[in-house]
Amino acid sequence: MRVAAVHCRIRPMQAADIPQILDIERQSFPTMWPQTVYQREMKNKMARYLVAYEPSAEHASLASPPADTPGMRRFVKRFIGGLPDTPGTSDRILGVVGLWLMVGDAHIVTIAVRPECRRQGIGEVLLVAAIETAIREHQDEVTLEYRISSAAARALYEKYGFRQVGIRAKYYSDTQEDAVLMTTPELRSNAYRQLLIERIAEQRKRWGDAYPLAGDLRGIVR
Q1: 101 CB-near residues (< 8 Å, 6+ apart)
Q2: What ranges make up the beta strands (E) of 67-202?
Q3: Would you call 145 a catalytic residue per the annotation?
Q4: Which of 141, 145, 146, 192 is flagged as catalytic?
Q5: Could you tell me which residues come within 8 angstroms of residue 114 by beta carbon, excluding any fewer than 6 positions away?
Q6: Which residues touch 130 (CB under 8 Å, ≥6 apart)?
Q7: Which carries the bigger pLDDT value, residue 152 or residue 64?
Q8: Which residue is catalytic, options 49, 146, 157, 160?
Q9: pLDDT per residue as tens digits for the range 28-43
Q10: Cα(136)–Cα(189) distance, integer angstroms
């Protein structure tokens, strides 16, 4: 079934997005303090932040080409490769994902979706965007933490090949809850490439031409 509730697209975070992103962060992590200093993060050479957004009416003409057109590879380079984009503050930010590029390890430091936009697959699209970004940045694996009580998070991450590699006891200061540390297999392995191709094919089937990512990693994973 195709998703029609929002017209979701992906691009690098811009300074003009920060007020909306802070609002999403407050709603998603109400006990977290202090909030992320995104102005500083934008200057962090190791950080990559992407947003899912719904274009405003004046930017509707910038909608992506269908996934099977020759322009798709240029589209992915533009939106995942971090090249400049034109949307501004009138775009509605639906969610954000951030990762830090360590030594061979891309660590997802945040992933959040507006409460009213959840259960529509936007978080999954953001996760795929983070994985694709890690591959393009020549990282070996992707790691993240999640609250041990979140079965939904675990199911999503396992769907994309993450496996548990450790526990961080009492990691979350608000509840003293443990964090589960998960990591992917080697990103450029044939087995993981095939897994991503299959998962993205499922996403394209769900979203149809509105799917905001490439959906084909053959030119990304070598």
Answers
A1: 46, 47, 48, 134, 137, 139
A2: 92-101, 105-113, 141-147, 163-172, 177-183
A3: yes
A4: 145
A5: 24, 27, 93, 94, 95
A6: 48, 50, 97, 99, 106, 108, 111, 142
A7: 152
A8: 157
A9: 887 766 778 889 999 9
A10: 14
pTM of the model: 0.81
- How far apart are the C-alpha atoms of 216 and 220, rounded to whole Å? 8
Rg (CA), the chain: 17
pLDDT digits (tens, 9 = 90+) for 69-124: 343 344 334 434 333 344 455 789 999 999 999 989 999 999 999 999 998 889 99
Question: 46, 80, 35, 49: which is closest to 213 by C-alpha?
Answer: 80
Q: How far is residue 214's CA from residue 204's CA, in Å, rounded to a whole number?
A: 9
- Quote the CA–CA distance of 18 and 20 in Å, as a whole number: 5
How many CA atoms are closer than 13 Å to the CA of 126, on its beta-carbon side? 29
φ and ψ of 35, to 5 deg = -75, 160
3-state secondary structure of 37: coil
Yes or no: say if 176 and 168 are a contact pair by the CB < 8 Å rule. no
38 is catalytic: no
CA–CA separation, 142 and 119 (whole Å): 23
pLDDT of residue 154: 95
Which residues share a beta bridge with 146?
180
- Of 60 and 132, the structure prediction assigns the larger pLDDT to 132
Do 164 and 155 contact (CB within 8 A), yes or no?
Answer: no
Element (H, E) at 21: helix 18-28
